[in-house]
Write a structure and sequence with these properties.
The complex is a heterodimer.
Chain A (H helix, E strand, L loop, with lengths): L5 E5 L37 H14 L4 E4 L8 H10 L5 E7 L5 H15 L3 E6 L4 H6 L7 H19 L3 E4 L4 E5 L12 E5 L3 H10 L2 E4 L5 H14 L5 E11 L2 H14 L20 H4 L7 E4 H14 L1 E7 L3 H12 L6 H9 L1
Parallel strand pairs in A: 1-2, 1-11, 2-3, 3-4, 4-7, 7-8, 8-9, 9-10, 9-11
Antiparallel strand pairs in A: 5-6
Helix pairs in contact in A: 1-2, 1-11, 3-5, 5-6, 6-7
Chain B lengths: L3 E5 L31 E2 L2 E2 L4 H14 L4 E4 L8 H8 L7 E6 L6 H15 L3 E6 L5 H5 L6 H19 L4 E4 L4 E5 L12 E5 L3 H10 L2 E5 L3 H18 L4 E11 L2 H12 L15 H8 L12 E3 L2 E2 L2 H4 L6 E5 H13 L2 E7 L3 H12 L13 H10 L1
Parallel strand pairs in B: 1-4, 1-15, 4-5, 5-6, 6-9, 9-10, 10-11, 11-14, 11-15
Antiparallel strand pairs in B: 2-3, 7-8, 12-13, 13-14
Helix pairs in contact in B: 1-12, 3-5, 5-6, 6-7
Classes of the chains: A alpha/beta, B alpha/beta.
Keywords (chain B): Flavoprotein, FMN, Monooxygenase, Oxidoreductase
EC number (chain B): 1.14.14.5
Protein name (chain B): Alkanesulfonate monooxygenase
Chain lengths: 355, 389
Amino acid sequence: MTETPEFLVTVPTRGDGRHPLRRDRGDWEERRPLPAFVTDPRGGVSGPSAHIAQVGRAAEIAGLDGALVPFDPEGEESLVLAAGLLRGSRHLRVIAGFHAGIATPVYAAKLSASLQRFTGGRLDWQIDVALDPVVARAHGDFLQGGDRYARAEEFLTVAKGVWHEEGYTYEGVFYQVLAGGFQPPNAGLPFPRVHLSGIEPGALALSARHADVHLFDPGQNLDVGIAGLGDRAAAEGRAVAYGLRLPVLAREDEEEAWREARGLWALAGGADEDFPRPDPKTGLWPGFDRIAGPGALGLVGSYEGVAAGIRAYRDLGVTTFVLSARPTVEEAYRLGERLLPLFATESQKETAHVH
Amino acid sequence: MSIDIYWRIGTHGDQPSLRRRVTSRGEWAPVVPGSLAPGVRHGRRDGYSYVEHMADVARASEVSGFVGGLLPSFPFTDDPWATAAALARETTTYRFMIAYQPGFLHPVQAARMSATLQRATGGRLVYNIISGGGGPAQLWWGDRVDHDDRYARTSEFLDVLKGVWNGGPFDYEGRFYRVEGAGLPEPLARQPFPEIYFSGSSKAAIEAAGRHADYYLSWLEPFPDLAAKFAQVREHSAALGTAPKFAVRIDVLARETEEAAWDEIRRGWEHVDPSALASADGDSVGWLRSQSFVSWPVRHHRELEVSPNVWGGFHLLRGGPAFGLVGSYAQVAERLDELIGLGVGAFILAGVPHLEEAYRVGEEVLPLLKGHDVRVASPLTAALSDSRA
């Protein structure tokens, strides 16, 4: 495993801030007022897209490979944010997260073809299949259980069909197309790389047939998941890359990192006596549950320590790391300057010196 | 009442003039030396994409006094949602009029995308809702709902979209859509709801427009036919207790003199392939109507001038609807004033090439309008009208 892993940042879809509970960057809460005697130029100039654009620029300047805009039913819409991020960058790959119920597969593909044209093919998809049933019904989706995978299967089949084949016709349970298919210049573009997730058999079977990257979470059993998915993909004659969504808190040394973690824990309302310890076996810290979202597990430590944790996942076969860290702009810079260089290959270092 | 004047942004490339049907902007034709966005530099593609050109058209029409731009949607075009989202941050006052057919996007997703766009633009999103079109193309889109049913679906679509707009929880059980506990999250909720321009010439469309439209939008037709259509909409709307305003989508070819304008048309006409006379396609009533105003075949281009300055041959010189205005700046302004007199409250103007003609029409035609005060869109035109006052 000598290949340099791919690092992405997670875009905040419902505000951002230094304080783990504040969301005033990106217009999700009022900014704190300045004293009355201080001239305040901020009125009306900082909308949500101003902050998202700033996150995108930071990620790009910091040398990250991409940005994930997750499907967030309680947040901003991901395809719109992705379009702005792609337009404001040159190199960043942007993954837009959504579910199969948002549109017909033809329309999702059509919209995506435009974004591919505008941006040199830098849009990727993450399809969420196993939505919380309450969220799904609020989005007009009443499918349950295995039907959701069957529908996602058709969705991806049709989207790829119209993308790659002129005169495409399809007759399925969920979708129908007659003499479809894109024409130049909407034809012949790279299809968005498909990211899928989930550990249950239906999810792995779908990934084996359609995923370019399967995203795991640190709480899942990656050994079993990767082995199972690898076998299924091989049986389909395909290869799937493995990714990990990973909250990180990396600082100069262990002591500083844990001091920061304690500070965030307290700001998020955690009692000092409840401050959780990292799992002695995996090194994963459950305290992210409070500061990064329910159930989140991630790595806390020195840059070298976090890099060692990432290398352990890389040894399992993970090549894509979707990192999350708040506040997103500052942390993207930090990761780009301090963590990513630890993964530069010898040839990259030499190239950097030459210039 | 102030009149909103929009420009059109071509979402499938553009030609440098009406003289020849050559698409040199965008890659809808092979990219060769002389092509723009993408272009060729040192024998290779220059890395630009068509969105750069659309951004130029948006900025040009914004600074020329247009309130916004229509982004059309067809199987072969770029997608208007993608375009609006990409360009949202590159203009300041410009409204993005997104053409779409309900049914391709789920209404909850359309509400989410719209609210995020409203937040990104400070409320500059406008809808052009199309329900008709159809024919074979409808199944190209993967849509199997019949023509008249599509209007029923549009009604349900807007019920759900408006239902979730201000938050939740919203429940709905219709023929086409069902949601439970739906609603936009804070603070996406309660954004200004986009104005609705509603297109469609069939009876079903006119009935639906009465219920949902802020503006009933028509292609240009001979003025008496347009007036009759408006009367129909007024009648249907009055029965429902609503009163939509009217908007017309018009191609304009305006020059300093009438002769110069017709000379431009004549040069284009010389290259029209006689076999290219388009045939009716699909179940669009609007298209059939526009073909019925002229008796084919036609030999001379002026035979398509059905009344002064109203010319029905634009579809032969570029893709799109047949009717537009041809004449001097003053004549075109007079015709637009006449339409204002018929009750038109908004225009979507267009000209080929869209970039250069946006400057021309904005600078030369709009200032001549007398009908009503034109809504001032840009700081530049605001300053000019202040200095004239």
